[in-house]
Amino acid sequence: MLGNLSGLLDKGAQLAQTKGFDPAVLVGAHLAPDMFALGRQVQVACELARNSVARLTGQAPAPAQEPGQTVEELKGTIAATIDYLHGIAAATFEGADTRDIEIQLPNDRVARMTGARYLRDWALPHFYFHVVTAYDILRHNGVEIGKPNYMAHIADAIQPRGQ
Amino acid sequence: MLGNLSGLLDKGAQLAQTKGFDPAVLVGAHLAPDMFALGRQVQVACELARNSVARLTGQAPAPAQEPGQTVEELKGTIAATIDYLHGIAAATFEGADTRDIEIQLPNDRVARMTGARYLRDWALPHFYFHVVTAYDILRHNGVEIGKPNYMAHIADAIQPRGQ
């Protein structure tokens, strides 16, 4: 999904070039004035991917970073996140489903759940929230993207019928 | 997530009542003129939930339906989908991870994958796409919702710190 997100940003940069506007305008675009802009959506998607894996494998979550200001910076953050994820050996997840996960929340609250619930009920819905909202911001701003871009990871499973 | 979606629609109906507009305007709202409107986003989220379970348990997927025209109709579709999902016994999923899944696509194409890949790479990204886009349409139209509404299913795991 992070790879697809990088491809969506490319399509945004393409539109900016065709229409002759600064692609950083897209990075600062919102669907509502009190929602995160595209740049922060991408940044948080990357943080969630990284932190979910950290928590499930018993490491401390990484500190939050300021989001990139340009499409290139955002793509760099995505690439670094994918590299980090590829570096985690599958065996590191052993026992993750029963691990106790604790998430510090604002207003002196804490969320506690098992690793299995954390993956299904916290990490995935949050991660997809930011990936899809990034898509929606781009789409709302006229970037020519569709489900094949959002679902680029599935291309190898699609064939002509009868084969 | 479908329960949360129903709650998001309630918040939309609430805004319509406060501001004195027809809630069906929200049902027909788009983020882009060639994207599905809210009603279709909700309908497709329900179809995906139902059909993913059908495919993973070896049943024929249900035929597509016309989306509801009102918030009440959409909430009815969500409630019926949740009922359907609750009616599927866990044991029905036995062997689903290695089941061969085939999805007919437009332009004489077909996608083929195992059940495990289908769940992770097809069902979940598609399902979340439509749930989050429904959220984004409502949010873009000024409905007062936030992450606690989108993540309502996690409320029972949140406590004051120190308990």
From TrEMBL, chains A, B:
Protein name: DUF1993 domain-containing protein
SUPFAM superfamilies reported for this sequence: DinB/YfiT-like putative metalloenzymes
Taxonomic classification: Bacteria, Pseudomonadati, Pseudomonadota, Betaproteobacteria, Burkholderiales
